[in-house]
């Protein structure tokens, strides 16, 4: 059993191709083969006993030369000062091998002239010829050079115009690639750069406005650019040109204008905010039992502490009474061990002194000190505060012979 598979980079379905099997020989038939059919194919043979046997083969499609062409390749600019050099490149594809020839203004170029030389390279089916011109002269070398590529299947030609440096040629093939509510994407093909680095600039305006807006393309050499910040449902006119250090080109396609109407703005209603659920609230009466319990416990502690204080006072009173320490009428203890006690009667005159019984005996004793009355010691206001007959101060005085 024979199976065929394409070994190229991309997947390819071979089921539509004709297959032939002749005994031990299998064939894959490709009718009217094209350049895209060229490449490697694999054949796998399996007789039911693994492993299968595999082999591959390369298909080579023969075709006449095809030179790469384009507006940007059709001109080369260089100063014609007799000092500068340049190279004209002609690249072609073809099988079998391609050969090249050059002509200037229709006359075959004479390579005996030392100012002209050719370099040629071949890589598989791609072939390149470069015409090198030294000491370019504006008088002798500003001309049309024609490259001819030839093989056994045919030939192809391409002309290159050698000119002086200048402002760039206009771009071409300006078109709209896409557009939205607020943006438009444009594309174009580059023209001749004038022999210098060029960049592109987009010009646009909308209906009802006379002045233009200008936007420099970025990256500068890009051939696709998106203009943003536009209004929806608005008609715009666009054009593009090229710029180098020597000046600006005309606008693309003979100053053509591309007209685009942007899409309508979508009036989307803002999403309604979802109601925020209220945070869970604690039960107002959840703490009531604990509150009453705390209050009850606090009250019980106060009662117990007061009861303990009363007990301590009663016990102290009993102990004092048991030790024989009498109290006065005001609850103050009286020192019964003093030999003499000076009593100050609030009802007496100012400066008078009254003593307990035995005062005369004590006063007549020559061994004791004599005391002199002191006038004006107590303020008059003090007499009005102390009721008569009430003892307020009890000054124990112990008098022993021989001592002050």
UniProtKB/TrEMBL annotation:
Q: Which UniProt keywords apply?
A: Disulfide bond, Immunoglobulin domain, Membrane, Repeat, Transmembrane, Transmembrane helix
SMART domains, alphabetized = FN3, IGc2
What sequence ranges are listed for the domain Ig-like?
Answer: 1-60, 65-159
Reading the lineage from the top rank, the first entry is Eukaryota
Where do the Fibronectin type-III domain residues begin and end?
A: 170-265
Q: Nucleotide-binding among the record's keywords?
A: no
CDD domains cross-referenced by the UniProt entry: FN3
GO cellular component terms listed in the entry, alphabetical order: membrane
Q: What GO biological process terms are annotated to this protein in UniProt?
A: cell-cell adhesion
Signal peptide per UniProt: none
List residues traversing the bilayer: 290-314
Does the keyword Ribosomal protein belong to this entry? no
Q: Which Pfam families does the protein's record reference?
A: fn3 (PF00041), I-set (PF07679)
Name this polypeptide is given: Nephrin
